[in-house]
Amino acid sequence: QVQLVESGGGLVQPGGSLRLSCAASGFTFKNYVMGWYRQAPGKERELVASIGRTDDSAAYADSVKGRFTISRDNTKNTVSLQMNSLKLEDTAVYFCNRRYSYLTWGQGTQVTVSS
Fold first, then answer.
1. Which own/partner contact pairs does 83-88 have at CB distance under 8 Å and 24+ positions apart?
2. What count of other Cβ atoms lies within 10 Å of the Cβ of residue 86?
3. What is the pLDDT of residue 54?
4. pLDDT given for residue 55 in this prediction
5. pLDDT attached to residue 76
6. What is the DSSP annotation of the chain?
7. Are 94 and 37 in contact (CB under 8 A)?
8. Could you tell me which residues come within 8 angstroms of residue 78 by beta carbon, excluding any fewer than 6 positions away?
9. How far apart are CA 53 and CA 100, in angstroms?
10. pLDDT attached to residue 60
């Protein structure tokens, strides 16, 4: 069964950090470029970061560049997002998925940045 399960979200103050994790199953994880996405209330889902199949390349949205780091472990079928210097505008539900040929979206994990 194809599945994406996100975890690690929570409530954090501005300037704080969180590390999100995504466990993937049901497909050959190492063959796919993966991405982290987010959707804030009233806004469309957007791509935050993506990572190549062998962890050798990453790309970031301008809004998170220099603050977020995406990584993957092909031995564990996981992709992670380290988020530092969090801002109020980072508040959203965060999802992982393949960068292309999307799978059914998981539940996501809520990140709330608030003082």
1. 83/17, 83/18, 83/19, 83/20, 83/111, 84/17, 85/15, 85/17, 86/12, 86/13, 86/14, 86/15, 86/16, 86/17, 86/18, 86/111, 86/113, 87/14, 87/113, 88/14, 88/113, 88/114
2. 22
3. 87
4. 74
5. 97
6. --EEEEE--EEE-TT--EEEEEEEESS-GGGS-EEEEEE-TTS--EEEEEE-TTS--EEE-TTTTTTEEEEEETTTTEEEEEE-S--GGG-EEEEEEESSS-------EEEEE--
7. yes
8. 21, 22, 23, 24, 72
9. 12
10. 98
> Low-confidence residues of the chain, pLDDT below 70?
none
| Contact partners, residue 52, CB within 8 Å, separation at least 6 | 33, 58
pLDDT on residue 23: 98
Express each pLDDT in 8-37 by its tens digit.
999 999 999 999 999 999 999 999 999 999
Tell me, what's the pLDDT at 56? Answer: 75
CA distance 114 to 66: 21
